[in-house]
Amino acid sequence: MLSPGYERAPLPPLRETPVETVHDTRAEAEKKPSGKNDRDPFLDNAKYLTIVLVAIGHAWAPFAGNSRTTGALYMLVYAFHMPAFIVISGYLSRSFDGRPRQISRLVTGVLVPYVIFQTAYTLFMRAVDNPDREFYYQKPGFALWFLVALFLWRLTTPMWKNLRWPVSVSLVIAIAASVTPSIGGDLGLMRVVQFLPFFVLGLQLRPEHFRFLQSRPSRRVALPVAACAALLAYWAVPRMSSAWFGHAASVQQMGVPAWKGAVVNLALFGCSLVLTACFLAWVPRRRLWFTALGAGTLYAYLLHVYPIRLARVNEWYDMSWVGHPLGRVTVTILAAVMMTLLCTAPVRRVFRGLMEPKMAWFFRPDPAAAARAREHTPTPDRDPSAQRRDSSAQPRDSSAHR
C-alpha cells in the first residue's frame, strides 16, 4: 500500500499488458524497490467506479420507463459507463503485439472464461426460467458479449497500432456496421464493432492525456458539461430510446433511415466521448478504500449477471416498495454494495480457477521464453563469482614476474 501522503503519482509505463482490461491481477502489478504494489491508483479507481455504474445501469433498467427522472439518469449513465470501461481496456492493451505469452493469457483470461460462463449462464437460465433453453455459444448471454469483444479487439490491436488514423478508420467501420442489418446478433458483433472506436481510442492514449483531464481547468469544465448533459437526457427521455446507447441493433431496426441513423450514431459517439472525459476528470488519483477493488472488476462484471437476472425472472421489481423513489434509491445502493463485494479478494480467490486458469498443458512451450530463462540461469562456467573464486584459488606463478 502506498503511503498516506502519496498523491497524483504519474501513470506507470506499461509493461506486458494483462489479459483482463480491466482485470488480470497477475501481470498488471509491478513491484517497487521496496517490494510494495505499484499499481496506478487512478486506473484502479476508474475501473471500480465504472463497474459499479454498469451494475447500477442494469439494476435501473426495469423501472427506467416508469419515471422520467430515472429514465434520464439511466440514459446519462448508459451514455458513458461502457465507453469509459472500454477506453481503459484499450489503454491497458497498448503493449499487446501477439507474443506467445500474450496469446496464451488472452485465451485463458478471456476465451476460456467466456465458454465457462456461457455454459453456466445457460444452466442457470434453465433452472430459473426456461428448462428447454438451448446451449449455443454464438449468441453471448446477458452481458457476456464484452468477453467476445475484448478477445477480438485484443487480437486486432497490432493492426490498429500500425495505422496512421486508427480512430477515424474504426469510427467509419462502426458507422458502416450500424447501417448494416445483416450483421445480426451472432457473437454480439454489432456491439463489438460499434463500440470498437472507444477501444482504439484507448490504444492511442498516453499518461499525459489523463494528466490533462485531471487538471483543475478540466475539472471545472466537466461539472457544467455533465449538468447540461443531464438536462439534455431529461429532455430526450420521451423523444428517443435509450437503446441507442446499447449499440446492439442496426439503425433500421431502430426505425430510422440509414443516413439519419448514421448521423445520430456519430453524434452519440461524440456525446459519449465528452461524458467519458468528464467522468475521468473526476476519478480520484490517490489511493482510497476502494482502489484495491479495481483488480477484481472482471470478476464482478461476470458474476453480477446472476443476481440481476434472478431479480428480473422472479419479478422482484413488481414489489410495491420498489416503485417508490426511496425504493429505487435502495436498489441503487444494493447494486453498488453487490459489485463492491464481488470485487473483493475472497471472491477472486474462489473463482480464480474459472477466471484465470493456468492451462500450461494446452500451449506449446515458448522457445524465446525458454531461451531467456536459460540466459538468466547461472551456471558454474558462466557465474562470474564462481570464476573469481576459482582464479583466487590458483597459486601465483612466480615466473610471470621475472
UniProtKB/TrEMBL annotation:
<feature type="transmembrane region" description="Helical">
    <location>
        <begin position="46"/>
        <end position="65"/>
    </location>
</feature>
<feature type="transmembrane region" description="Helical">
    <location>
        <begin position="288"/>
        <end position="306"/>
    </location>
</feature>
<feature type="compositionally biased region" description="Polar residues">
    <location>
        <begin position="392"/>
        <end position="402"/>
    </location>
</feature>
<feature type="domain" description="Acyltransferase 3">
    <location>
        <begin position="41"/>
        <end position="345"/>
    </location>
</feature>
<keyword id="KW-0472">Membrane</keyword>
<feature type="transmembrane region" description="Helical">
    <location>
        <begin position="104"/>
        <end position="124"/>
    </location>
</feature>
<keyword id="KW-0012">Acyltransferase</keyword>
<dbReference type="GO" id="GO:0016746">
    <property type="term" value="F:acyltransferase activity"/>
</dbReference>
<feature type="compositionally biased region" description="Basic and acidic residues">
    <location>
        <begin position="372"/>
        <end position="391"/>
    </location>
</feature>
<dbReference type="InterPro" id="IPR002656">
    <property type="entry name" value="Acyl_transf_3_dom"/>
</dbReference>
<keyword id="KW-0812">Transmembrane</keyword>
<feature type="transmembrane region" description="Helical">
    <location>
        <begin position="257"/>
        <end position="281"/>
    </location>
</feature>
<feature type="region of interest" description="Disordered">
    <location>
        <begin position="1"/>
        <end position="39"/>
    </location>
</feature>
<feature type="transmembrane region" description="Helical">
    <location>
        <begin position="326"/>
        <end position="347"/>
    </location>
</feature>
<feature type="compositionally biased region" description="Basic and acidic residues">
    <location>
        <begin position="17"/>
        <end position="39"/>
    </location>
</feature>
<feature type="transmembrane region" description="Helical">
    <location>
        <begin position="165"/>
        <end position="183"/>
    </location>
</feature>
<feature type="transmembrane region" description="Helical">
    <location>
        <begin position="136"/>
        <end position="153"/>
    </location>
</feature>
<keyword id="KW-0808">Transferase</keyword>
<protein>
    <submittedName>
        <fullName>Acyltransferase family protein</fullName>
    </submittedName>
</protein>
<dbReference type="InterPro" id="IPR052734">
    <property type="entry name" value="Nod_factor_acetyltransferase"/>
</dbReference>
<dbReference type="Pfam" id="PF01757">
    <property type="entry name" value="Acyl_transf_3"/>
</dbReference>
<keyword id="KW-1133">Transmembrane helix</keyword>
<feature type="region of interest" description="Disordered">
    <location>
        <begin position="371"/>
        <end position="402"/>
    </location>
</feature>
<feature type="transmembrane region" description="Helical">
    <location>
        <begin position="71"/>
        <end position="92"/>
    </location>
</feature>
<feature type="transmembrane region" description="Helical">
    <location>
        <begin position="218"/>
        <end position="237"/>
    </location>
</feature>
